[in-house]
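Example record for the data management plan.
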Amino acid sequence: MTRTHALLVLSASAILAAALALAIRERGDAPIGSAPAAATFDRAPDEVRSTNLAADPDREELAAEAAPSIGSAIAPPRELVVAGRVVSVEGLPVSGVTVAFCEEDRRDPNGWPVAFSAVDGGFRMTRPPRRGVALAFDLRYVTVREAAMYDDELDREDLTIVVAPSIRVAGVVVDAGGNPVPWASVDADAGMTRGPRPIGRFRPHESFATRSNEAGRFVLPRAPSTDGIRLIVRAKGYHVADLRLVGNLEEQLVVLQRVNAGDDLTGLVLDERGAPVALVEVSMLDVVTRSDEHGRFCIPLWKADDPEPGESPELVATFDGLLPARLRPLSSDWRSRPAWPGEVTLRAGGPGLRIRGFALRSDGTPIEGVRISFAPPEPFEIPEPRDSDRHAELDSLASIGGFATPLVEPGRYPLLVFDPVSLDEFVTDPIDAGSQDVVIRMPDRGHWPPLRGVVVDRRGRPCPEAEWWIEHDDEGDTFTMLGEHRFTDEAGRIAHGRLSSNADVLCVRAQNTAKLNRVALASLPRVDDFRIVVPVACRTRIELDPRWHDIDMAVFTTQGGELAPVCPLHADRDAAPMMIGFRAGRSVTFWALDDSVELELLSRMKVRSRVPVRLNPDELNVLRL
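Corresponding structural encoding:
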């Protein structure tokens, strides 16, 4: 994960925390397991309890997983029940429909069991213990809404699959002048604003979307036949068309209107010797095309978006290894042909320029593997020549602290120098492009002693496989330093060589947790002998009684009222949410933090109830509400 992405995730979490804080009410004091009256429910089921699966006779299979034995390690996984109903968009049962379980990232049963819906629309089958969806595989119907199963440890008998009769839709996309519009995206929207609320709401896009061909024609071989079905058609430079199906389903006519008026601009691309060049990229703001075999190109000026503030419209032809060709309009009316020269010719310049040299530490030793880049604002980088062996050149220079920048246009550019060993960084004064044998010496800004420490949880146990890295707190700076991501050893130990004083933050994230612990190095009594305590991951499942049908989100909070992030079992923890969504039904399993003291249940972002909790890291915590 990049630092920028991390900051965006943290910023989004902070905004969400602020929004939730506005909804917080006075907390209840009773832990889960006490009498229902002690919990602060507005409309609560009769019982709220936390269960250790090992003591639950109805969950023997899950208890075996929570405390595995040699026998359970080799036993085949238990197949789970999948049951529910197939209904139409009007909510009526649909019989005789083939239903299959598919893995989440595929729309292919791939040998998994199938079932057939009965007269009442009901179906029943088994599935392996993994995430997936249940949907209809029937040439007569298309699946409008699937039934998703994100919790791979529970039987599911409350699924709803919404289907519609399958129809074929075809037609042509044209502009206001009747000219075909190629490569327009065509989506069929079932138009369901009402109807049965399914467990999962996912549309199989491969059946509902296509693109027009070069002649503007399109075919949707399987689209949903509903009263509200609409075609949504989009193409660059045109307004979105949203229309109902009318007349012959095989001859739908879609007319797109331009967003801007303007002309097409044609021209010729030449190399530095004056010969036409094929397949050269030519751009005008966000519109990009390529020259043909004769070097000719055509740019539809009317398709281009308005330039950003401070940005000027110009034609740019980008060549491999050569300076780009640039041409600006003669007047501000740049979308019209008269604003450009009579003969538009884009001719490449000479070879692009590099800065080459060596990077040394303050003591004069070479920085092996030095990383050199252009400091912001970065110049336009010219594509490498097709016969360039760029990687081989850089590999030969890296061992002696040498470097060579990418190709750029003439100018003076500051360089950002990064030492991957000490994590020191430095921005040079501007250097002329084309300079050779440049020697860059890092200033002596001091160093931390070698980093030595251990990561433990709140029980005092070492945390192996905890992810850690070093950062520079770059608030207000124009560049970011980020060290290599590493993991603690079996004893939870962290070790790093001598660090630049420019490094000032140690980031630690324990296994199966989403909470990022940022520790300022200056706050540690000793950087060569420290101890960092982190929360413990607790495997937790929430099971909602049907009487909580309006609850769609939940969130854990700590003693200090902060939101405690959860870590999905089968997802990237960098994108771990602060909130738990019940999008897959009335149960969900995840990793929570042991410092969570309260569970808040929300409906449409409003807190409905708060329940005190105590999570045990050594058990599978089941919260039945």
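Summary line stored alongside the record: Residues 304 and 552 are 42 Å apart (CA to CA).
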